[in-house]
Amino acid sequence: MTGLYPVVTSDVLTDDKFALTTRGAVAAAGVYAPKEGASDPRKQFPWARGLISAAMFLGIPEPYQPTPGTGRLAGFVGSDGRNYERFKEALVAACEQLSRVAEIGRYEISIDGPGVLDRNVALASGLGWAGKSTGVLTKDHGSWLMLGTIATENPPHDSMVRPAQKSRCGGCVECVRACPTGALGTAYRCDASKCLSLSTQSPHEIPDEVASRMGTTIYGCDVCQEVCPVNLRAEGPRVKVNEVQLKEIIESTDEELRQRFPGLYFPGKRISLLRRNAAIGLEN
Ligand code: B12
Ligand code: SF4
Ligand code: SF4
Q1: How many structural domains are present in the chain?
Q2: What are the catalytic residues?
Q3: Which domain holds residue 19?
Q4: What is the pTM of this model?
């Protein structure tokens, strides 16, 4: 974990129309979307006065060199699909420790949850800054971070609250240029309806012009992160790319895929969508 960054609940962005647009696009694709009020954590946690942003460094994926017949899953999945579980375990342990040394009162952990936008909490807490990729970046680890939020009954002590960081993207537009679908604008916004990460998770048919841009990545998309100079300079352990034999995926049963990638999210647990994506990867 990269540390715990407390923030007062009311300091988190609350009037966020773009988050609603994003929610609409994600829901329209049939994918798990945050709740309508997710921009305002006070709606989800009316009893909370404090929030703590936490991040788990996922490691820096080794450079990917695709070979014929192979594909990959995006880095955040982890080689065994257990990254979310690992982070949850670390946060449970951190909360137990914290409640012994600080009077945080009642608390609740949310990772990728429907009621709070983890990036907004991370940005308000000063953990990192917003990139034009819309990722939350830190100087040391770039955006190779999984974010989580802990709601606490008591507000943090003033001395623990850090100011939000200014974006350090400057004139860089690498991610905007590299995005295969033009989903990123220069205004730190991602048009979720165009994002390949959403297409790979969606149960709806993937149009040919979108499929042709997926390359051989069969779950998620890491392009905007891979080209980012902050990520290229990041330090820390390297992790193996989640490489797969596409034919092997296509020939696997649902049960085999579930065992191989436990915790991999698809709406309605439709792991068969991974076979669909692998067929697209083979075509590309
Ligand atoms: C829905 C969702 C998606 C959707 C839509 C993403 C989008 N950008 O619109 C889809 C399926 C496309 C997606 C894709 C990905 N996602 Co996603 N996703 C989520 C989820 C569930 C909700 C995000 C959301 O709706 N945000 C609303 C939008 C509008 O917020 P935003 O883009 O961050 O922009 C706002 C802020 O930046 C804010 N802001 C800007 N500057 C500042 C400054 C301050 C001080 C403050 C307070 C706020 C602020 O204003 C912006 C406008 O509203 C979160 C988990 C969660 N519960 O929060 C994960 C999450 C954002 N995803 C994550 C990841 C890793 C990804 C992928 C990289 C996965 C992959 N490899 O395929 C891609 C990246 C795509 C991209 N460029 O964003 C991580 C982000 C980690 C990080 N370091 O930033 C999260 C936090 C999951 C997690 N728990 O770690 N995702
Ligand atoms: S994840 Fe891929 S498709 Fe989505 S914004 Fe980043 S580069 Fe574009
Ligand atoms: S690629 Fe450049 S513009 Fe995009 S997030 Fe990284 S530093 Fe910012």
Answers
A1: 1
A2: 112
A3: 4-283
A4: 0.97
